Amino acid sequence: MSQTLKLTVNGRAVEREVEPATLLVHFLRDTLRLTGTHVGCDTAQCGACTVHLDGRAVKSCNMLAVQAAGHAVTTIEGVAAADGTMHPMQAAFKACHGLQCGYCTPGMVMSSIDLVTHHDHSSEHRIREHLEGNFCRCTGYQNIVKAVQVGAKGMGA
Known about the structure:
The chain is α+β, with helices and mostly antiparallel strands.
């Protein structure tokens, strides 16, 4: 039996009927067509599905859509400015070549924004430690760490 879900996604009020067992990642991708949030492992291990819930990073494959009721969700599509200007962290990932295949990139960027906003990012060690829940199979993380450092400066942190 479906139920009405009301929440804010990327600054816009959303109201949809949803089955109670629908995962947030599937609601975002399949219902709202926000396909920047990727499905990787379906077990909250890889971080490809990372979004922000009320400004904090969460793995959207690990929570039900109905758990986001009344909350604000931001996906990778919602971090750029209204005029399309990339978020400083997105720009840093591009400038520092912090991606290769790009599959992990949306989740990595979302986790990196959370890291800079809410956690100690004063050293390479701290950055690597915080990003442990995000897997990249292509880059070796060197350029990702550099991108976080450059992105942090761009964010004024």
